[in-house]
Amino acid sequence: MKLKETLNLGQTDFAMRANLPTKEVVLQKEWEDANIYQQIQAKNADKPTYVLHDGPPYANGKIHMGHALNKISKDIIIRSKSMSGFRSPYVPGWDTHGLPIESALTKQEGVDRKSMSVVEFRKLCQEYALRQVEGQKADFKRLGVTGEWNNPYLTLAPEYEAAQIRIFGQMAAKGYIYKGLKPIYWSPSSESSLAEAEVEYADVTSPSIYVAFKVKDGKGIVPEKAEFVIWTTTPWTLPANLGISVSPVASYVQVKVGDRHFIVAQDLLESLAQTLNWEDYQVEAHYQGKDFDRLTAWHPFYERESLLMVGDHVTLDAGTGLVHTAPGHGEDDYHIGKAYGLDILSPLDNQGHYTHEAPGLEGIFYAKGNKLVVELLKEKGALLSYSEFVHSYPHDWRTKKPVIYRATPQWFASIDKFREELLEAIETQVKWYHPSGQPRIYNMIRDRGDWVISRQRAWGVPLPIFYAENGEAILTAETIEHVATLFETHGSNVWFERDSKDLLPEGFTHPGSPNGKFTKETDIMDVWFDSGTSYAGVLEARDYLTFPADLYLEGSDQYRGWFNSSFTTSVAAKGVPPYKAVLSQGFVLDGKGNKMSKSLGNVIVPEEVMNELGADIIRLWVLSVDSESDVRISKEILKQIAEAYRKIRNTIRFMLSHVSDFDPSKDTVAFEDLRPVDQYMTAKFKLVVNDLLSAYDKFEFASIYKKVINFMTVDLSAFYLDFAKDVLYIEAPDSLPRRQMQTVIYGILRDLLPLLTPVLLHTMEEAWKELPGVEGYVQLAEFPQAVDGTAYQVLVDQWKLFFHVQQGVQKALEEAKNAEQDPIKKSFEAAVTLYVNEEQANALKALSQDLDQLLIVSHLDLVTTPAPDHALVLDDYAVSVSRAQGHVCERCRAVRPEVGTIAEAPTLCHRCHQIVKTHYPAYFEAE
Question: Which of 172, 203, 585, 735 has its Cα between 20 and 30 A from that of 148?
Answer without folding.
Answer: 585
